[in-house]
Structures are given as structure tokens and as C-alpha cells.
């Protein structure tokens, strides 16, 4: 059997195991039907000379946009058309490691298998480009389809700036504490388009989580677990809103004063 790039690289292997764990959560939560959603992680810090010498195992594919800060960087990417629930068990069969080429506009696959990356590669690499440019120390991006949060984007009222943020913050104090920047909104755009990628990074100037109207959510973070946690916290708040509504009443929400108190206490 072919040797995996993860062999004898425990730190890289641990990162990929986190991706697999999160992929399992996405499936269990019902957020990842069929091939829905994608995950990418910047793994450049784990790359050694031997990896840098590894030949391409695919042709060079265009990214669709340019990512000047990612020249020579390496990413784990979920494969296009692959199932999250399969990735949870076999991350290197349902995703691959890619190298960004010197033109900063294309990439090649280097390991383990020539699994072509996610259709949302332009959005994902644009997000990573921004994270590196800003020196945020963020390494992971996740896109998924949470039922509750996507449903909320079908209400035009919730698409106005920070309406959804304030509503979700007011459902349970943890949301304010653990998603302190709130939730950006990207008006509906064609999936996989560069327009979607550009609109996403515009919102990420201000937020760590953005909704794609009538499609899904994108979150970034220091690692994939923390990116997932932000979406999980927001989804919990959405569930509380939905549960109150289905009990037949409008939830009151914590007050503005209670939120300000929280902001002071947690230094948000
Ligand atoms: O990869 O979710 O937005 C499938 C998708 C595209
Ligand atoms: Zn999607």
C-alpha cells in the first residue's frame, strides 16, 4: 500500500484527525447532506523538505482568483463531490493536500490521492489569503448547511445588518460570549462563484462567521474545532428561538443592559 503523507508526521496527522472529527459532527447534526459543505485547513506549518520535494499528482488547476499571500502554501481540502460522512472515517480518501503554485492563481495536488478539491475552493482560498494577510493566526475554514440558520436567511428582515446577530446573541448569554463578533450576511450568490468568494471576504473583515443567504454558513478560526464551535453556538441560539416560536410565543430575549453587562464582564 502507498505510504500516506501523514505517516511519521504526528502533528499533521492530529490536524487531519480534527478535520475528520468535525466532519462527523457536521453529518450528525444534519448539516451535511450528500456532498454538502467543505473544510480546508492551512497545513503549511507542518510541511518539511520532503513534502516540498513531493511531485504533483495532478495537473495544475486554476483557483479562479488570485491569492498572493498563499504562494507555496499547503492546504488540506475536502474533495469535491465527496461526502462529509465518508470524510469523517477516511479523510485522506475524501480529501487531499494541495500546494499553491508560484503564480498564486493555481494549485496542484501532492498527496495522498488525486482527489480534486471542493467546488468552493475560490471562497476557501480567498478566506485563507485574507487570514494570512491580516496575520490573524487563523488556519481553518468550514462551510456547512445548518438547517436553522439557513431557514432564518429566508426572512428578509433578518438580512439587515446585525439584526440576526442581535437576535441570536439575546437567546442565550453564551452566544455573545463565544461568538463575540456576531454574524455577517452575504446576499444570495451563485454557489462556487468568485462573486461569492469576494463578498465573503468582505464580510470577514468584520466577522468570523458569515451567512450565505439561502445556502449556508462559513466560519474561520485558529483551528477547525474552533471554527465549528462558533457555528454550533449560533445554531444553538437559533434552536432556542425556533423552539420558543413553535411553543407559540415570541421569545423576549435578554435585554440590551444584560448584554452590555456581559460585554463588560467578558471583555468582549
Ligand atoms: O460542496 O456545499 O456550496 C458542496 C457545497 C457547495
Ligand atoms: Zn454549500
Structure description:
The chain is an alpha+beta fold and 268 residues long. It has one domain (10-265): Class II aldolase/adducin N-terminal domain (L-fuculose-1-phosphate Aldolase). The chain contains ten helices and nine strands. It has helices at 10-28, 49-53, 84-87, 121-133, 147-152, 163-169, 173-178, 194-204, 224-246, 256-266; strands spanning 38-42, 61-62, 74-78, 95-100, 106-111, 140-144, 183-186, 209-212, 216-221. The protein has a nine-stranded mixed beta sheet, sandwiched between helices. Helix 4 (121-133) runs parallel beside helix 8 (194-204). The longest helix has 23 residues, at 224-246. The protein is elongated and about 60 Å long. The model has no long low-confidence stretch (mean pLDDT 97). The structure holds Dihydroxyacetone and zinc ion.
The fraction of residues in strands falls at 15-25%
* Cα end-to-end separation: 51 Å
**Could you say what the CATH topology is called?**
L-fuculose-1-phosphate Aldolase
Number of domains: 1
Short description:
With 268 residues, the chain is α+β, with helices and mostly antiparallel strands.
List keywords for this structure.
single chain, 268 residues, L-fuculose-1-phosphate Aldolase, nine-stranded mixed sheet, 10 helices, elongated, binds Dihydroxyacetone, binds zinc ion
Amino acid at each position: 500500500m502507498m505510504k500516506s503523507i501523514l505517516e511519521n508526521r504526528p502533528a499533521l496527522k492530529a490536524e487531519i484527525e480534527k478535520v475528520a472529527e468535525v466532519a462527523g459532527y457536521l453529518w450528525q447534526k444534519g448539516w451535511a447532506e450528500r456532498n454538502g459543505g467543505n473544510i480546508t485547513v492551512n497545513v503549511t506549518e507542518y510541511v518539511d523538505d520532503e513534502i516540498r520535494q513531493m511531485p504533483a499528482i495532478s495537473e495544475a488547476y486554476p483557483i479562479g482568483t488570485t491569492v498572493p499571500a498563499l504562494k507555496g502554501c499547503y492546504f488540506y481540502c475536502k474533495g469535491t463531490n465527496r461526502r462529509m460522512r465518508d470524510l469523517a472515517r477516511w479523510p485522506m480518501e475524501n480529501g487531499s493536500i494541495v500546494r499553491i503554485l508560484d503564480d498564486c492563481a493555481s494549485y496542484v495536488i501532492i498527496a495522498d490521492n488525486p482527489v480534486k478539491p471542493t467546488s468552493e475552493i475560490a471562497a476557501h482560498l480567498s478566506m485563507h489569503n485574507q487570514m494570512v494577510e491580516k496575520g490573524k493566526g487563523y488556519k481553518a475554514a468550514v462551510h456547512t448547511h445548518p438547517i436553522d440558520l439557513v431557514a432564518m436567511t429566508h426572512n428578509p428582515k433578518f438580512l439587515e445588518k446585525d439584526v440576526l446577530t442581535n437576535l441570536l446573541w439575546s437567546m442565550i448569554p453564551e452566544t455573545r460570549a463565544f461568538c463575540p463578533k456576531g454574524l455577517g450576511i452575504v446576499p444570495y450568490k451563485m454557489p462556487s462563484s468568485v462573486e461569492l468568494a469576494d463578498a465573503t471576504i468582505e464580510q470577514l473583515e468584520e466577522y468570523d462567521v458569515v451567512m450565505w443567504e439561502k445556502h449556508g454558513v462559513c466560519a474561520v478560526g485558529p483551528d477547525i474545532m474552533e471554527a465549528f464551535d462558533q457555528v454550533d453556538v449560533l445554531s444553538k441560539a437559533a434552536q432556542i428561538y425556533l423552539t420558543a416560536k413553535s411553543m407559540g410565543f415570541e421569545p423576549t430575549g435578554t435585554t440590551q443592559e444584560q448584554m452590555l453587562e456581559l460585554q463588560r464582564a467578558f471583555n468582549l
